[in-house]
Specification:
Number of helices: 11
Radius of gyration: 22 Å
Number of strands: 8
Structural class: alpha+beta
Distance between the termini: 54 Å
Helix content: 40-55%
Strand order of the largest sheet: 1-4-5-8
Largest sheet: 4 strands, mixed
Length: 393
């Protein structure tokens, strides 16, 4: 079994052969992937060494200390946190070899074509059709709230392939080339002024059957792997103590004593404790992911993430008083990365409103926690065995 000492040795060898100060960033990242030090728990040849997941921190610490470049995870978070684990679990050997290396290096950005105008919280109601045509599938439909679609080369795509089946069946999962004819990406301007999200129209897009992930009709099963990983990647990312939103407010509190009041002091203490509990819970959750199969507990972490971000950003605006009402720029921009905490307090306050929607609405996640974590009775579902084509829309 690979040990921490083995990984330190491998990392030193990588640094000696490819000094970060004199090696092109992309070349260094490719060399790191080929050395099995990208994600150490992945298989040999796919960026890993079949090592325990927890040993990734050993590699990351060594490389950070040496000033090595990272792969800009905020820019490629959808690929790293959602597409890659789904491809690893359900992809063919050819798909893994072709897609995982440029994904991790950041040469190819990924987006997620799941939600639709009529199928957001109830994703299984989606209506984007894929019809078999020889060795290809012809895809028609509309997706919405697609982060980074304007810079993405690839997308994970869920479609309806059999409308005669109930909504959770008859779905099929594909890997969609965003450069294919018929893919039309349009910006959606948000409350922040940016267009981080997009709507995507698919008109006669021909997708090879070789880019199908999982069996025909098992798209919901494959999508569950993506969704569980998505919630862990949003709500359970590794951050240091006082990292994220709470760190920004704590710094303001320390540096601006004239802003303090008894009420904001009490609220800051309560939120600091909540943020630290969430951080430690996330650490425990990651330790439970050694097998690589995230469970419903990630939904609880994503719930906490959304609530905390909204409450902390609200406190920050109130703490700053008149300054908290300022906003630097409403210009329409199409950022190439997701940034929950960037810019000033007004931006953070507005951007956090989306945290309880993206990655699964808080209402849906509460149901998941109630049913799959706490074991409470399921809500009545009258459409469970009704063919999708017969559902009221």
């Amino acid at each position: 079994m690979t040990t921490a000492a083995d990984l330190r040795t491998r990392t030193k060898e990588l640094l000696a052969a490819h000094p970060p100060a004199t090696t092109d960033r992309t070349a260094f990242l490719k060399a790191r992937f080929d050395a099995g030090l990208a994600w150490v728990h992945y298989p040999v040849g796919l960026g890993g060494l079949d090592a325990p997941r927890g040993l990734q921190a050993v590699v990351d610490a060594e490389l950070e200390a040496a000033g090595a470049p990272d792969n800009d995870p905020r820019r490629i978070g959808i690929g790293l946190g959602m597409a890659a684990p789904t491809i690893l679990r359900y992809g063919t050997d050819e798909q893994k070899r072709r897609l995982l290396r440029p994904l991790w290096v950041g040469e190819e950005v990924w987006c997620q074509l799941f939600s639709e105008p009529g199928a957001g919280s109830d994703l299984a109601a989606l209506g984007t059709r894929a019809v078999r045509d020889g060795d290809h599938w012809v895809v028609d439909g509309q997706k919405v709230w697609t982060s980074s679609a304007h810079v993405a080369r690839w997308a994970i795509l869920v479609t309806r392939t059999d409308p005669d089946q109930p909504k959770h069946r008859g779905m099929t999962y594909f890997l969609c080339d965003m450069t294919d004819p018929g893919v039309d990406v349009r910006p959606l301007r948000q409350i922040t002024g940016e267009a981080e999200f997009n709507e995507v129209f698919l008109s006669g897009v021909r997708t090879p059957d070789s880019m199908r992930l999982g069996e025909v009709g098992e798209g919901w099963k494959v999508a569950q792997t993506t969704l569980m990983n998505e919630r862990v990647s949003i709500g359970g990312s590794r951050i240091p103590r006082e990292g994220g939103m709470i760190g920004t407010v704590a710094r303001t509190w320390r540096e601006r004593p004239e802003l303090r009041t008894r009420d904001t002091h009490q609220r800051l203490l309560e939120l600091w404790v909540d943020a630290e509990v969430a951080r430690l819970t996330g650490e425990r959750l990651r330790q439970q992911l050694v097998a690589g199969h995230p469970g419903p507990e990630g939904s609880g972490m994503k719930l906490a993430f959304a609530r905390l971000n909204q409450e902390i950003s609200s406190l920050e605006v109130e703490l700053l008083g008149d300054e908290g009402l300022l906003y630097d720029d409403w210009t329409l921009r199409r950022p190439d990365k997701v940034d929950f905490t960037g810019r000033e307090a007004g931006y953070r306050y507005l951007r956090s409103k989306g945290n309880s929607i993206e990655g699964g609405t808080s209402e849906v996640l509460l149901n998941i926690v109630a049913e799959r974590v706490l074991g409470l009775p399921s809500e009545p579902r009258t459409d469970k065995d009704v063919a999708w084509k017969d559902l009221a829309r």
